[in-house]
Write a structure and sequence with these properties.
The chain has about 230 residues and is an alpha/beta fold. It is built from nine helices and six strands, in the order βαβαβαβαααβαβαα. The two termini are about 10 Å apart. Keywords: Hydrolase.
Length: about 230
């Protein structure tokens, strides 16, 4: 059994570096590529085109939208699904306005990475002066570059709460207690809507759980995934 990891906005495979050794117990670790497409459904199709025949699926933040699309497009291939720091809600009016501003910006404007302020907002308050953590997150964005930033910034994230019943695999929803980007209420409504889903809350962390609290995250998801893999 393989485990397929789907990163979030302007995050690359290094998002999972602290977790891969523990996750590799389930089989080959495969990283989804979200750099090229302009819709969630297209991202899901690209991932499925090269994914193993069956797999455990983990989606973080924006990757949670893609992971749910994967589970809908290929229900017989997904053995179990973990959704963390994500939501089933569509874009807010404020986010749509921000996307409009990005779309109107000249493509020639040099990309200098995510701002320290933007990155700090995604972290637990006690980590907002953690330079090493902030630079690790910014480095992912710099590696992906300006074209990917523009593409992912303009990505439409349609609300899919009403399609939650289409997810047929065992599902674990993981929320961060101090997530300033995705509320606990969003996680609760997602878990309630997906048949049989389980909700877990990781304390004392912000949105970036895989980097901020990897061991505590593993303590939650590894036993759960093991139970599904054996079932």
């Amino acid at each position: 059994m393989a485990i397929l990891l789907v990163p979030g906005f302007m995050a690359d495979e290094t998002l999972w570096d602290d977790m891969v050794p523990a996750l590799a117990r389930f089989g080959p670790v495969v990283h989804a590529d979200l750099r090229h497409d302009t819709s969630v459904e297209a991202m899901a199709r690209r991932v499925l085109a090269t994914a193993p025949p069956t797999f455990l699926l983990v989606g973080f933040s924006m990757g949670g939208y893609v992971a749910r699309a994967i589970a809908r497009q290929a229900p017989d291939r997904v053995r179990a699904l973990v959704l963390m720091s994500t939501s089933t809600r569509g874009d807010t009016a404020a986010l749509q306005k921000r996307k409009g501003a990005i779309g109107n910006a000249a493509p020639s404007i040099a990309f200098s990475g995510l701002s320290r302020t933007a990155v700090a907002t995604s972290l637990h308050p006690k980590q907002r002066d953690n330079d090493a953590l902030i630079e690790r997150i910014r480095a992912m964005g710099m590696r992906l570059g300006g074209e990917v930033f523009r593409r992912q910034s303009l990505l439409d994230r349609p609300g899919d709460l009403e399609r939650s019943g289409e997810i047929r695999c065992p599902t674990l929803v993981v929320a961060a207690e101090n997530d300033q980007l995705r509320s606990l209420a969003e996680a609760q409504e997602m878990a309630a809507a997906i048949p049989g889903a389980t909700l877990a809350v990781i304390e004392d962390t912000g949105h970036m759980i895989p980097i901020e609290a990897p061991q505590r995250l593993l303590d939650v998801i590894v036993p759960w995934l093991a139970a599904q893999a054996e079932g």
